[in-house]
Specification:
- The protein has helices at about 35-40, 50-60, 70-85, 95-115, 135-140, 145, 165-170, 195-205, 275-290, 295-315, 340-350, 370-395, and strands spanning about 20, 25, 30-35, 90-95, 120-125, 155-160, 175-180, 185, 190, 210-215, 240, 250-255, 320-325, 330-335, 350, 355, 360-365.
- With about 400 residues, the chain is α/β, with parallel strands linked by helices.
- The strands form 5 sheets. A 4-stranded mixed sheet has the order 1-2-3-15.
- Strand 13 (about 320-325) and strand 14 (about 330-335) form a beta hairpin.
- Helix 2 (about 50-60) packs antiparallel against helix 9 and helix 3 packs parallel to helix 9.
- The two termini are about 40 Å apart.
Length: about 400
């Protein structure tokens, strides 16, 4: 018999009643250190007082308004994002996938408005993850997500991850742009080198096509910069964002230059809930916190410390840990065992993590994490690895 909630998730048998800072608590008070952060969503941890204050204040006014009317909260948050980035304009959504849909439409409309309606294709990297809609699973190209949903939506050309030569060769008369993550999250915390990003930016400029950087997971300080592309010293033409934007409240956005957005006139796109006053109030408070210079400096400092601690841990457990990868507080542990075994062993130690492709375990702690909590996490990792080593040794003897 089917469950009341559609069974599309392989859920852990855990329920949480409340959260505080980087910790989650079950109903009986058992505490877990969360190094998944709702998959890079809860950047400011749980029960952040500024976010609660913004939510309650707006909830006492108005929750939802149609986009038929001006919404001051949208204009305020758009200005915050524009002032902090390359962008000239912002469209608000409810999720990262919706922000990607807007970006895809915008890229096609850009060329249509410029007299080249044939330019509809986007070049993407293998291993990418851009969402779960029909367009975004086609963009990601993962057979696991495409299976059973009929023909993949046309308009996406995939090349091997990081292969700039192949990407350049794929640019043709039907190419609208390039859609990539600066650092693949779901794909296994695979970092695109800064030089490769700079080459791709230059190739797009030379071909007269758009660069779309999916910073849904990498955005808002996760890599030590407000956005990951800043590490390479380049800017995109279009950038979908979400996850940390609302600090846990569902909200996304598509940022763009004025030039890239030239085709998006009245009636070309819309959303019923996107940009509602409640989301805008919380996101505005979150962005205010995450754009503080001391916030980003803290992330960089904790990122260096975590990298050092994990390097020592990897040396101590070479049969479990193959390598450590990532940037700042977006870290992957590539394992020599099945990654889900380490995720489960860590859960037994009350440390929450997230699996990823390429046999990787993701560490995505709230960005407010402190060194004592990093030490706590590493101790739990040490115990989990030791337990798995003992289990494997026992299995070998048997």
């Amino acid at each position: 018999m089917i469950t009341p909630v559609l069974p599309t998730y392989a859920r852990a048998n855990l329920e949480f009643e409340r959260g505080e800072g980087p910790y989650l608590y079950t109903a009986d008070g058992t505490r877990y250190l969360d190094f998944g952060a709702g998959i890079a969503v809860n950047a400011l941890g749980y029960s952040h007082p500024k976010l609660i204050e913004a939510l309650v204040e707006q909830a006492n006014k108005v929750w939802h308004l149609s986009n038929i009317y001006r919404i001051p909260g949208q204009e305020k948050l758009a200005r915050q994002l524009i002032d902090a980035t390359f962008a000239d304009t912002v469209f608000f959504t409810n999720s990262g996938a919706e922000a990607l849909e807007c970006a895809i439409k915008m890229a096609r409309k850009y060329h249509y408005a410029g007299g080249h309606p044939e330019r509809t294709d986007l070049i993407t990297f293998e291993g990418a993850f851009h969402g779960r809609t029909l367009a975004t699973i086609a963009a990601g190209g993962n057979p696991k997500y495409l299976e059973g949903f009929g023909p993949a939506m046309p308009g996406f050309v995939q090349v091997p991850f990081g292969d700039v030569k192949a990407l350049k060769a794929a640019i043709g008369p039907h190419t609208a742009g390039v859609l990539i993550e600066p650092l693949q999250g779901e794909g296994g915390i695979r970092v695109l080198p800064n030089e490769a990003l700079r080459e791709i930016r230059a190739a797009c400029d030379e071909a007269g096509i758009l660069l779309i950087l999916d910073e849904v997971q990498t955005g808002f300080g996760r890599t030590g910069k407000l956005f990951a592309h800043e590490l390479a010293g380049i800017t995109p033409d279009i950038m979908p964002i979400a996850k940390a934007l609302g600090g846990g409240f569902p909200v996304g956005a598509c940022l763009a230059t004025e030039e890239a957005a030239r085709g998006m006139i009245v009636g070309t796109h819309g959303s019923t809930y996107g940009g509602n006053p409640l989301a805008m109030a919380v996101a505005s408070a979150a962005v205010e916190e995450m754009t503080k210079p001391e916030f980003l400096e803290h992330v960089r400092e904790m990122g260096v410390k975590l990298s050092q601690k994990l390097a020592m841990l990897a040396d101590q457990h070479p049969t479990i840990i193959e390598s450590i990868r990532g940037v700042a507080l977006m870290v992957g542990i590539k394992t020599r065992i099945v990654n889900t075994e380490l995720v489960e062993a860590l859960r037994a130690e009350h440390l929450l993590t997230v699996g990823a492709g390429d046999n990787v375990v993701r560490l995505l702690p709230p960005l407010i994490i402190d060194e004592a909590q990093l030490d706590e996490a590493v101790e739990k990792l040490d115990r989990a690895c030791s337990a798995l080593e003992a289990k494997n040794a026992k299995g070998d003897v048997a």
